[in-house]
Amino acid sequence: MSGKLYLVPTPIGNLKDMTLRAIEVLKEVDLILAEDTRNSGKLLKHFEIDTQMHSHHMHNEHKTVEGIVRRIQGGENIALISDAGTPAISDPGFLLTRACVEAGIEVDCLPGANAFVPALVNSGFPNDRFVFEGFLPVKKGRQTRLELLAEEPRTIIFYESPHKLLKTLAQFVEYFGAERQVSVSRELTKLHEETVRGTAEEVLKHFENKPPKGEIVVVVSGKK
Predict the structure, then answer these.
(1) Euclidean distance between CA atoms 49 and 28, whole angstroms
(2) pLDDT tens digits, residue range 205-224?
């Protein structure tokens, strides 16, 4: 009898955001696939989870998916976790999930922590309809993407790294206009959590004077 794949969200900062069900699943499965076993090892130790771990990340997932599918077909229950948040959201997970679905394997994605939903709700922008963009292209296709998104009427959500935030905000001023409303949330659920709201120009000036640190979610209002 075939096993099951569990997609298990992990806290994005505050360990109290780990759900009871997530702990239960991680204790009961036969194997945990982790993006970074060193990072996840600290989490598992905190919750007294001693399930075996294997590494599963963007650099090896193409090679390991087939073997994992065979193991689940053989009856093993396997859980996938990323370093933080919900697997497959700008993290490894899509390839394995697709392969399991195509193989007729049951996939169970637990609800739990992620970064973009609290950032979206906290922005104060309309959230009945929105676009999740994740990370913008680094080079090829970036300009084309920004030109397209400049006309998007729905609220737009981006992930960004601290060292690229100023460049991205400057491009928002250039492509979306200096008056477009922007909300930047960083270090969500952590001690130094901060949300900065204002026009694209105002938020850019804020972070020019106060260099950003930590994980960042940028929410941009749609074109009116």
Answers:
(1) 9
(2) 999 999 999 999 999 999 99
